[in-house]
Amino acid sequence: MLSNASKYAILSTLYLAEHSNEERKISVKEIAENIDVPSPFLAKLFQQLVRGKIISSSKGPHGGFYLSEKNKQKNVLDIIDNIDGLNKLNGCFLGLNECDSTNPCPVHFIVVPFKNNILAKFRDLTIMEFAKEIADKGDFLTLKNVSPSLEAPI
Amino acid sequence: MLSNASKYAILSTLYLAEHSNEERKISVKEIAENIDVPSPFLAKLFQQLVRGKIISSSKGPHGGFYLSEKNKQKNVLDIIDNIDGLNKLNGCFLGLNECDSTNPCPVHFIVVPFKNNILAKFRDLTIMEFAKEIADKGDFLTLKNVSPSLEAPI
DNA sequence: TTATTAAAAGATAAAAAGGTCTTTTAATAA
DNA sequence: TTATTAAAAGACCTTTTTATCTTTTAATAA
After folding, report:
1. CB atoms within 10 A of CB B57
2. CB-CB neighbors (< 8 A) of A96 in chain B
3. How far A60 CA lies from chain B's nearest CA (Å)?
4. Could you write out the DSSP letters of every residue in chain A?
């Protein structure tokens, strides 16, 4: 549904939202280590997010990535759109070209409410609101395995 | 969420369910044309489904693919498991390694009910029941564009 | 103004997904 | 028993995704 690239982009942008501002810029290396993402890959993603005006950057000593006030008003769907495009998120679950409420695939009426739900969440909250919601719960998003387990989580 | 391979496998197995039986076997070519899937690719998938005992085959004149009585008792989740494995369907929507109800990602409580829903549908109906439900509604699943449109369907 | 720092850019490469083609094997009908 | 049919097997190819490495550019601090 989402590519790894999108997932990395979301997690690291939310990291920026919580830990950076115009005065406190953050290097790729720091973020990559903290959320456990390959850093050269993240560097590439960040270039693209900068071009898409989702995040900001400056070079040189004390340079790095950060969110400007304008950036903070973007939402998670902007990130997904910038990296994957929105088509990946739309489209029939079984791949049918013609699948809608008058001609639904067998899982259409299970999938559509879910999509509307998650789309609303990704579109209606700003990145800051999203990050705040996470911080308020005391959570910290990382791909690290704090307590490695062999089973896939549900 | 599902690979193309899984989607093709589901659609073509459901096609077999409706159109084949031990006496009436169907060639890859016929199915590929009917549901609009690349036929050499489908041939590969079918080899794997035969090895996984999801469908049956016989060679030679009047040979082809079909569902045995045992095959008909399999469910859609068996197809997905055989092609993609089940991990692709499980796993956190944002890719977090540790995401559960005590330590949920921001969309956990939107994603989990959906997954339970669709998993139940894929697991609790046999392939025949699934196919019958579709046929009863008068539907026919294909990837063909009957009336080509430029917009991605929702 | 020079050394240093960190991103930008772009070339390269490995892995996975998606797809094609050719040869071999097995079944069966003539 | 031979020709024919259709799957099985496996080699091969292409594209996309994921990832790495090297060089260049810009900012800044000494």
Report:
1. 14
2. 141-143, 153
3. 32
4. ---HHHHHHHHHHHHHHHH--SSS-B-HHHHHHHHT--HHHHHHHHHHHHHTTSSEEE-STT-EEE--HHHHT-BHHHHHHHHT-STTTSS-TT--SS-BTTB--TTHHHHHHHHHHHHHHHHHSBHHHHHHHHHHTT-------SS--SSPP-
Our CA-based measurement puts residue B96 at a distance from the nearest CA of chain A, in whole angstroms, of 5
Task: Write the pLDDT tens digit of every residue in A14-46.
Answer: 999 999 999 999 999 999 999 999 999 999 999
Closest among B82, B60, B66 to B17, alpha carbons compared: B66
The C-alpha atoms of residue A95 and residue A87 are separated, in whole angstroms, by 12
Instruction: Tell if the CB–CB gap between B107 and A121 is shorter than 8 Å.
Output: yes
Q: Which of A10, A41, A90, A98 to mutate to test the interface with B (most CBs of B within 10 A)?
A: A98
Are B96 and A141 an interchain contact pair (Cβ–Cβ within 8 Å)?
yes
Q: B113-123, pLDDT tens digit by residue?
A: 999 999 999 99
Q: Coil, strand, or helix at residue B56?
A: strand
B93-117 residue pLDDT tens: 999 988 999 889 999 999 999 999 9
Cα–chain center distance at B49: 11
Decide: CB of B116 under 7 A of nucleic strand D: no
Interface contact B11-A94, CB threshold 8 A: yes
Q: Do A94 and B7 touch (CB under 8 A)?
A: yes
- Cβ A85 to strand D below 7 Å: no
Domains of chain A: 4-84+126-136 (1.10.10.10)
Give the distance, in angstroms, between residue B56 CA and nucleotide C15 C1': 32
